[in-house]
Design goal:
Structural class: mainly beta
CATH topology of the largest domain: Immunoglobulin-like
Radius of gyration: 38 Å
CATH class of the largest domain: Mainly Beta
Largest sheet: 6 strands, mixed
Number of strands: 19
C-alpha cells in the first residue's frame, strides 16, 4: 500500500511539473467557502441493481475547493464489511469471485481542476456475463497530492513528503437471484454501557446490526424515550443505513442532536426502546434499556442546601438548650414541715 502511494505521488508530481494540460472533462464553476480548504466527491453512496452482462453509467462529481489548482487521480478498489465496529468497510486488493474493480472504466484516469471548478466524471460499470446472484461492492476513489506547506519549506524542514488525500463514492451492486437475506438488531446499549448521565446532551445510544446474509441490507427504524411515568419525551427517527454482508454495523444515536438549539432538561430514570426494521419485508426487532439522567451541579447544589438546613437546625437547637435551661430548686432547702396529726401541733422537745 505504501509503494502504491509513493508511485501515485510521483505520477501526480510529474503531472504537476508538466504544466497545464487539455481538460480531460468538462468543467463548471462551483461556489467556494474561503474557510474550507478541501475537495468534495459526490454522491457518497450509489445503489444499483444490475443483471449479468448489463452495464450502467453513473456520474461522480469532483469539486476543487483547496484554494489552488490540483491534479486528481481516479482508481477503483473493492471493499468488504468488517466486524470491527469502528470501521464499517475495509478496502481490499484481493480478487475474489465477486471482484468488481476491473469492470469499471472512465475516459481518463487523471485530470486537472482549478480552484472553484467542478467536473462530472462518467463511470461505466459492467457486470460480467457469468456473475452469480449476490452483492458486489466497489469504491471509486479520487486522490490528489497535497504539497508541503510553503512555510515549512521556507523554514528548512527536512524529511517531509507531500500527502496523498483521497475520498470517494461507494457503489453497492445487487445481482438479482436466489440469495440468502438475513439480518437482525443484535445489541442496543448506552455509550460505554454507562447507565448514569449528567445531562441529556451527553446521552448517546449505540445500535449494533448484524448482517448474516450474502447481500447488503439497509435497516431503518426509531428510538422512543419515555420517563418514569411512561410519558413519551423523545421520538428519534433513524433513516436507513447500510450493513455489509457477514459483518457488523454500529449506528450511533444521540438523544439531543443539536445541543445549541435543543437544550432539554431531564432528571430521573428513563427507558429507551429501539424498533429497527431489518431492511427486507416487514420484519423488525425491538430492544430496550433503562438509564438515569442526574445533573451533578444541580444535585450538589441540593445537597449543599440540605446540609445548610440540617446545620442551621442543629445550631438553633444547641443555642436554645444552652441559653434557656430549666431552673430546679436547690437541694435540702425550703421543704415543708409534716404535721403531727389531725389538730396537733409540732413542739420542740423539752430539755
Amino acid at each position: 500500500m505504501k509503494l502504491q502511494h509513493l508511485i501515485l505521488g510521483i505520477l501526480l508530481a510529474l503531472s504537476f511539473l508538466a504544466g497545464p494540460q487539455v481538460q480531460a472533462y468538462a468543467v463548471e464553476p462551483v461556489q467556494i467557502d474561503p474557510s474550507r480548504q478541501d475537495f468534495v466527491v459526490g454522491p457518497g453512496k450509489v445503489d444499483l441493481v444490475l443483471r449479468p452482462g448489463e452495464s450502467r453509467v453513473i456520474e461522480v462529481m469532483v469539486s476543487n475547493r483547496t484554494g489552488e489548482g490540483r491534479y486528481f487521480e481516479i482508481k477503483f478498489n473493492d471493499f468488504i464489511g468488517s466486524n470491527d465496529l469502528t470501521s464499517p468497510v475495509i478496502l481490499t486488493a484481493e480478487k475474489g469471485v465477486n471482484t468488481m474493480k476491473d469492470f469499471l472504466s472512465v475516459p481518463e484516469r487523471s485530470f486537472f481542476l482549478k480552484n472553484g471548478q467542478r467536473s462530472r466524471i462518467p463511470v461505466t460499470i459492467s457486470i460480467p456475463s457469468g456473475a452469480e446472484p449476490g452483492g458486489r461492492y466497489v469504491s471509486i476513489l479520487i486522490s490528489t497530492l497535497t504539497p508541503l506547506d510553503k512555510s515549512s519549506v521556507a523554514a528548512g524542514t527536512k524529511g517531509g513528503v507531500p500527502l496523498i488525500t483521497q475520498t470517494g463514492t461507494l457503489v453497492f451492486i445487487t445481482v438479482p437471484g436466489e440469495v440468502k437475506i438475513e439480518g437482525k438488531l443484535s445489541d442496543f446499549y448506552t455509550r460505554n454501557r454507562q447507565w448514569i448521565f449528567s445531562s441529556a446532551k451527553n446521552t448517546v445510544f449505540d445500535l449494533v446490526y448484524e448482517n448474516t446474509g450474502k447481500i447488503h441490507l439497509n435497516p431503518y427504524g426509531l428510538v422512543v424515550v419515555k420517563n418514569i411515568f411512561g410519558q413519551e419525551i423523545r421520538r428519534i427517527e433513524l433513516p436507513s443505513w447500510f450493513a455489509m454482508p457477514n459483518a457488523l454495523r454500529l449506528r450511533e444515536v444521540k438523544l439531543v442532536s443539536d445541543p445549541k438549539k435543543d437544550n432539554v432538561f431531564m432528571f430521573g430514570r428513563y427507558t429507551a426502546e429501539a424498533k429497527i426494521f431489518r431492511g427486507y419485508g416487514d420484519q423488525f426487532d425491538t430492544k430496550s434499556l433503562a438509564f438515569w439522567v442526574i445533573p451533578w451541579p444541580l444535585l450538589l447544589l441540593a445537597l449543599l442546601i440540605i446540609f445548610l438546613l440540617v446545620w442551621s437546625f442543629r445550631s438553633i437547637k444547641r443555642y436554645i438548650a444552652t441559653h434557656y435551661r430549666r431552673i430546679d430548686p436547690p437541694a435540702g432547702g425550703g421543704g415543708t414541715v409534716p404535721s403531727s396529726g389531725p389538730g396537733g401541733t409540732n413542739l420542740p422537745p423539752l430539755n
